[in-house]
């Protein structure tokens, strides 16, 4: 169970509204605010009723429009509105668009926030809607709940004299406040909950998990993740991510904390980093991707690079005293050792995705990523970082170090993995991908941490309709020679109903009904009788649905793959990562050098379907030692088609999930 940080937001004005409208007085004029950078708050009482077509319900010309419209139920771009549909399948939405002006990006003008009405507890009837423009954020609240936001650059351009008005009776009352009212949060009477952490996404229609960073500290497993809306399209495509935070002490009950690094300035765009402990303080390193918003010359990066090139080590660059917009590596520090992070306001390196860690020898180290590379070392976080391995690792998006027993590993974001004996120098790292010994299984930018009992967990995200998606956690296994595999973690897997036997034995072909949108499929495989045999399970759509997904396993070749399936036979061969395939796309790909398939083994497949996903996840565990996951857009599984050659499947069972994902 995930205990959500459920907040209600109150907007109590300190002064009378700047201007008001009512159903009896639906038009008015008002003067521009003296300082538009102080933002504004618009409080509305609306009476939502069924409607057709599109209608503008409030208008401030050239500044703001609020509309109701019927959205295309098949269009999930940006806002993913079809995550919530009315009983008749329609998708009515409420949207608010603000028009921004900035010197740097004059084409970054229209910024829209919105919700599908079906996500409200009572879609129709009276609601309080608050639109809040604070400068760094443009936010939509309904009945005190924050339901959508985006991150502006620029401000509305108010005329000396402005007019505004209501178009029909939907808005009963409107109050415009300058400056913006600072909202006060109060925790809801009952904290919201989610069924579980595996395959989790933050609640909401367009809320997703991005890059994940983990740490086990003082008996608590921390999961930090980049909070994503719109699949990296917030802030006009800059992403505008920030780190949210979950933790657990027992892996069955999870707690959602306040955001570790909220966005508080218009220039802020936060990239990947890592949690670490230094001088007994829990810290979180992260990158400032300011160059997505401003050119490099207007940031602190030139000064930081000049210092590094002249001194061969980095220096501390404080935001308060360094000219230019902050950019590069920075960090936040927890005040209580669990959460309550505060930004240090110090930039310690010009790389923009720092991976900071304290190695087993107690050295403070960093793997540099995104516009830098190599292994760096320092005696303090704020500065003094010097490069001890200039060319390895090669940088890229994100790398992550961990030691397990006699071996050191560096995993490289989407496609890289290197390992060496722990006692060997850094120059001894070998490329595991080139040998076909990687453990990539669909997870993007995975993070690996040792937890209690000597167990190792890998956490990452899988893309849904683009950048950002579901959180997935694996438990890893290690073979004596250092090879790593993965399996499902028992404590976090979704609970299922009592299984139903589909067949005691399957040989040749057979088809069965799934009977549930989300379910667990299990079966046993005995490859000894036919060393060259293979098997396939195709997850087929329900009547009239789209798409299919074939899981294919070749025990003798030690390969498994996902494909789109083929009529009347097995699908063709897919590529592994070593062969040029793309497991991180979670589409069609292969994994190789399976473990434990030279003797009888069990296959488990968890199918997760939901309206938010707009399709299904198919997550597979083979012999309890390798995993692979796929996302199939538009697929709602209704049937299972088995095909075998020279192999018998035994004990074929299916069990519906108890609490399907919302």
Features:
single chain; 662 residues; mainly beta; Jelly Rolls; Tachylectin-2, Chain A; 3 domains; six-stranded mixed sheet; six-stranded antiparallel sheet; 51 strands; globular
What do these coordinates show?
- The protein has three domains: about 1-185, Exo-inulinase, domain 1 (Jelly Rolls, Sandwich); about 195-490, Tachylectin-2, Chain A, CATH 2.115.10; about 500-655, Exo-inulinase, domain 1 (Jelly Rolls, Sandwich).
- The protein is globular, with a radius of gyration of 27 Å.
- The protein has a six-stranded mixed beta sheet with strand order 16-1-20-19-18-17, with no helix packed on it. A six-stranded antiparallel beta sheet has the order 3-14-5-10-11-12, with no helix packed on it.
- With about 650 residues, the protein is mainly beta.
What is the secondary structure topology, with strand pairs?
Layout: E1 2-3, E2 7-10, E3 19-22, E4 27-31, E5 40-48, E6 54-60, E7 64-71, E8 91-99, E9 110-116, E10 125-133, E11 138-142, E12 145-150, E13 161-166, E14 171-177, E15 184-187, E16 193-194, E17 207-217, E18 220-229, H1 234-237, E19 243-248, E20 254-256, E21 270-271, E22 275-278, E23 281-288, H2 301-311, E24 317-318, E25 328-334, E26 341-343, E27 346-347, E28 355-358, E29 364-367, E30 375-378, E31 386-389, E32 400-404, E33 407-412, E34 416-421, E35 430-431, E36 444-450, E37 456-463, E38 469-478, E39 484-487, E40 500-506, E41 509-513, E42 519-525, E43 534-541, E44 549-554, E45 559-563, E46 589-591, E47 601-610, E48 615-622, E49 626-633, E50 637-645, E51 649-656
Parallel strand pairs: 1-20
Antiparallel strand pairs: 1-16, 2-15, 3-14, 4-13, 5-10, 5-14, 6-7, 6-13, 7-8, 8-9, 10-11, 11-12, 17-18, 18-19, 19-20, 21-23, 22-23, 23-25, 24-27, 25-26, 28-29, 29-30, 30-31, 32-33, 33-34, 34-35, 36-37, 37-38, 38-39, 40-51, 41-50, 42-47, 42-51, 43-44, 43-50, 44-45, 45-46, 47-48, 48-49
């Amino acid at each position: 169970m995930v205990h959500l940080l459920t907040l209600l937001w109150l907007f109590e004005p300190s002064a009378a509204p700047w201007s008001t409208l009512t159903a009896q007085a639906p038009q008015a004029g008002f003067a521009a605010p003296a300082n538009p950078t102080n933002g504004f708050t618009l409080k509305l009482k609306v009476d939502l009723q069924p409607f057709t077509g599109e209608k503008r319900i409030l208008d401030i010309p050239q500044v703001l429009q609020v509309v109701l419209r019927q959205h295309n139920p098949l269009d999930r771009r940006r806002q993913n509105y079809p995550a919530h549909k009315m009983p008749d399948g329609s998708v009515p939405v409420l949207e608010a668009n603000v028009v921004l002006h900035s010197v740097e990006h004059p084409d970054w003008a229209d910024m829209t926030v919105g919700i599908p009405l079906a996500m409200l507890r009572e879609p129709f009837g009276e609601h309080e809607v608050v639109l809040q423009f604070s400068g760094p954020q443009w936010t939509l609240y309904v009945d005190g709940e924050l339901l959508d936001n985006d991150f502006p650059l620029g401000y509305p351009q108010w005329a000396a004299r402005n007019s505004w008005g209501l178009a029909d009776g939907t808005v009963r009352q409107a109050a415009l406040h300058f400056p913006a009212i600072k909202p006060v949060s109060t925790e809801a009477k009952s904290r919201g909950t989610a069924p579980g952490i595996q395959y989790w996404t933050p609640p909401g229609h367009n809320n997703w998990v991005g890059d994940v960073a983990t740490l086990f500290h003082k008996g608590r497993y921390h999961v930090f993740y980049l909070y994503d809306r719109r699949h990296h399209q917030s802030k006009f495509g800059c992403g505008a991510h920030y780190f949210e935070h979950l933790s657990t002490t027992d892996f069955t009950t999870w707690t959602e904390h306040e955001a570790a690094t909220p966005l508080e300035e218009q220039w802020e765009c936060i990239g990947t980093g890592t949690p670490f402990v230094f001088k007994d303080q829990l810290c979180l390193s992260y990158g400032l991707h300011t160059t997505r918003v401003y050119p490099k010359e207007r940031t602190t990066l030139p000064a930081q690079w000049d210092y590094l090139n002249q001194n061969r080590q980095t220096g501390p660059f404080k935001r308060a005293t360094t000219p230019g917009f902050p950019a590069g590596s920075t960090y936040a520090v927890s005040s209580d050792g669990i959460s309550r992070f505060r930004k240090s306001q110090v930039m310690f390196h010009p790389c923009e995705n720092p991976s900071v860690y304290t190695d087993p020898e107690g050295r403070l180290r960093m793997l540099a990523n995104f516009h830098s590379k190599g292994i760096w070392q320092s005696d303090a976080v704020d500065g003094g970082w010097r490069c001890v391995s200039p060319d390895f690792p090669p940088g890229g998006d994100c790398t992550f170090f961990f030691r397990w027993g006699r071996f050191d590993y560096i995993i490289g974001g989407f496609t890289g993995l290197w390992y060496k004996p722990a006692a060997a120098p850094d120059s001894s790292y070998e490329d595991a991908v080139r040998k076909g010994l990687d453990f990539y299984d669909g997870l993007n930018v995975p993070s690996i941490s040792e937890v209690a009992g000597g167990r190792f967990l890998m956490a990452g995200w899988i893309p849904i309709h683009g950048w950002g998606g579901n959180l997935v956690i694996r438990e890893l296994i290690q073979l004596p020679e250092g090879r790593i595999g993965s399996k499902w973690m028992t404590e976090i897997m979704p609970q299922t109903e009592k299984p139903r036997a589909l067949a005691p034995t399957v040989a040749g072909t057979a088809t069965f009904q799934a009977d549930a949108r989300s379910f667990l499929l299990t079966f046993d495989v005995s490859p000894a009788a036919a060393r060259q045999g293979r098997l396939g399970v195709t997850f087929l759509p329900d009547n009239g649905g789209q798409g299919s997904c074939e899981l294919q396993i070749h025990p003798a070749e030690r390969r498994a793959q996902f494909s789109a399936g083929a009529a009347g036979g097995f699908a063709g061969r897919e590529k592994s990562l070593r062969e040029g395939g793309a497991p991180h796309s979670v589409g069609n790909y292969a994994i190789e050098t399976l473990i434990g398939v030279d003797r009888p083994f069990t296959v488990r497949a968890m199918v997760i379907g939901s309206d938010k996903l707009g399709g299904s996840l198919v997550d597979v565990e083979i012999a309890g030692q390798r995993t692979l996951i796929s996302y199939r857009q538009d697929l709602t599984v209704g049937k299972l088609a088995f095909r075998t050659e020279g192999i018998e499947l035994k004990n074929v069972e299916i069990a519906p999930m108890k609490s399907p994902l919302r």
